[in-house]
TrEMBL record, chains A, B:
GO molecular function, one term: transcription cis-regulatory region binding
PANTHER family: LACI-RELATED TRANSCRIPTIONAL REPRESSOR, RIBOSE OPERON REPRESSOR
Record's compositionally biased regions (Polar residues): 317-331
Record keyword Transcription present: yes
Species of provenance: Bifidobacterium longum
Keyword S-adenosyl-L-methionine: no
PROSITE patterns per UniProt: HTH_LACI_1 (PS00356), HTH_LACI_2 (PS50932)
Region (Disordered): 309-347
Pfam hit, one: Peripla_BP_1
Protein name: Transcriptional regulator, LacI family
Annotated ranges, domain HTH lacI-type: 2-56
Swiss-Prot/TrEMBL keywords: DNA-binding, Repressor, Transcription, Transcription regulation
Amino acid sequence: MVGMRDVAKAAGVSLSTVSLVVNNTGYVSADMRAKVESAMRQLNYIPNELARNLYRNRTNTIGVIMPTIAHPFFSTLTAHLQREFAARDLKTLLCSTADTDKGESEYIDMLQRHMMDGIIMAAHTEHPADYWTSIHRPIVAFDRTLGEGVPVVRSDHEQGGRLIARQLIDSGARHVVLVGGPRSQFAEGTTFPTIRYHLTVERLLAEAGIACDYVEAGTVADIAAHEATACAIFEQYPDVDAIVGSDVVASVALQEASRRGIEVPADLQVIAYDGTLMAETAGKRLTAIRQDFPAIAAALAVRMDSQIAADGGPASPSKNDSASNVDTQPTPEEVIPVALIPGETTR
Amino acid sequence: MVGMRDVAKAAGVSLSTVSLVVNNTGYVSADMRAKVESAMRQLNYIPNELARNLYRNRTNTIGVIMPTIAHPFFSTLTAHLQREFAARDLKTLLCSTADTDKGESEYIDMLQRHMMDGIIMAAHTEHPADYWTSIHRPIVAFDRTLGEGVPVVRSDHEQGGRLIARQLIDSGARHVVLVGGPRSQFAEGTTFPTIRYHLTVERLLAEAGIACDYVEAGTVADIAAHEATACAIFEQYPDVDAIVGSDVVASVALQEASRRGIEVPADLQVIAYDGTLMAETAGKRLTAIRQDFPAIAAALAVRMDSQIAADGGPASPSKNDSASNVDTQPTPEEVIPVALIPGETTR
DNA sequence: CTGAAAGCGCTTACAG
DNA sequence: CTGAAAGCGCTTACAG
């Protein structure tokens, strides 16, 4: 491997001069620069990023922790995140928990060992808040509360709930089935804000006197379970006339309705929550609550910027129980609006 | 940051002893080990991976170059790749060209700068073969030929074509429309083997005297174009009675057929090529040629293993025009069988 | 403006 | 079995 030393020797200059040229830093006379550049070309010199990484204690890599990239929600989110990061010269490392049998802890470990500069946390976690707040490295949460000092970006699920409820009420729905994650996630103080749309829908429908049942699908990574759940709805609630669930659930429910000869939207309305590509490729264009992926990704990246800036900032005075390198402002929570995109599956 | 030096000092031993304990290498007496371990715990020592990376000239990271992770084909492939890599303690770096406006060259550059140990190349490329063969670092191609010394793993698209043709012939199709990438990719010596299934289908249908038209969809990353194309088919070929395209194209075509009141599969058959989750969430379960993602990922990972082993191997004798660190056996091409999964969209 | 030196935090021969 | 030393390939104060 040809290194800076070789270039320096060939150009007849010192190591530091080569470094200055490579990094385009400081002042180097024109002919020095020329000599170095020609030597670099001659030798086909390529700087080794690992050495820089060590010196700077940075990898310019952000990990994205999520259940599985195979789920359209996360692949869409990740695509947008990658765009934001790339614009900042940051790389995107895939950290799927379901695709690898690695838990979040292993990825956090990698963060601690400086294999990444920060982490976007978008998977469910069972860790108590003090686990997350004790990490003292750049973390930004997507759609879940991890404790003081960990900024959160999420969609406005209450608004999503209101939009769904209004649609259902206005169109005269009478028996709504909501499909979502395990009901245990609804506990007070849950880290999992997604379910707020369910709570909002339930409340508003109750006020309007509309029947509303909740059906548990498996966890987000268990896509087969979603399919089974969607089909089972029709057995369990033969008079259902509206189904609300993720894009996957909604698509499969729509397919099953068609199989049973149920008219959509006349006899059954279907609303998808997420609004990924899959909402457009189902049997009909699904009416969907669309999460604003570009805005979410942009907000996450901005938060990450400041977490990283704080991390690189003034070293903490070594009393590691009281001080942190990372921003500990009262947890900022940024809420991104959603929109109801009318499709062919609602009246 | 607490480093090995601090641990050594606290434990009253030398740096190397700490290193031996951390890496669990060589022989360390029990009480030495105990002292070191307690010091590590005390100080909450976490090894800095960057230093190791520099020494070993390795990052244990594989980049996956693809058009966009938002496309179900690539998100599925990537999920499986990540599983294989994780089992080998390798991380997966996302390298989407369409999601970042970065070309493959930028990712290859990162490979050269040792920011990754290897690359899986699964995007289309306009570079001539000598570009790829001149890189001399671990690269494994998925479904495209990049030149001597770059191993290829691909699905058996000829078999896929035969399965499709047989299905269409046996079911009495009379006017088939094939949807695929730009026809220019069909040139002799193309780097893009995917289109072989189109060629096979065309040939077999011609032999059977069945009409077959080819319609160009946009590039794989341009999903909106796929949707438009699928709809346009019905205008352009009113008597079409079978459509073959990617999962996305097939799903949208099926949706459009339903909108037009066309009976599937009685009056129109639809076959999806890929067999991702999306083939299951369309209006009906799509009959699909399923690419064997687990097998593909496994094969890619095995090839990557040996490319990396060769890369770390004996240094080339510095005559960089004749020798390479990387395996230059006659290009191995591994062909993975596909399967036709019957669904509700064929007769 | 340029060069010699120290150092990023670890690992690994090599003596003892 | 343990320690002192050199080194991974670069960067950045610091003298000249």
